[in-house]
Amino acid sequence: MASYALNPEAVARAEQLIDARQYVVESSWGEVQPRTEDENAFLASHSWEEYAAWHLGLTEGATDGTKARYAFVYGDFRRVHRMGLIACHYRAAEWGHKEIELAAHELLQRLDAKRA
After folding, report:
1. In DSSP terms, which residues pair with 80 in a beta bridge?
2. CA atoms of 5 and 23, how far apart (whole Å)
3. pLDDT (tens place) for every residue of the chain, 116 residues total
4. Which of 31, 6, 10 is nearest to 80 (CA)?
5. What ranges make up the beta strands (E) of 1-116?
6. Is the pTM of this model over 0.90?
């Protein structure tokens, strides 16, 4: 199994989006999470740094500037998805990536507090 480090820039970006109310509360994450075509379209007009900011995890040992480097996507390249954060939290907990699990949990709490 791959090893992941927390991406602090992604956490900061998600916090900014949540604070600006750029989020979706209800979605079917399996249908709206970015697909390969979505990633390629985003990368055609954005930098790798901008792409990285949508991923809570950095794959240890993978080269920067490759899709393999980035994991645990939490949004659709425009908005944070609550279900995306839940998916990140669940997967990180399931696979034992505690830093990412806790970051996803804190972001979820922030989003829920903002919408309350």
Report:
1. 23, 75
2. 24
3. 789 999 999 999 999 999 999 999 999 999 999 999 999 999 999 999 999 999 999 999 999 999 999 999 999 999 999 999 999 999 999 999 999 999 999 999 999 999 98
4. 10
5. 4-6, 23-24, 55-59, 70-73, 80-81
6. yes
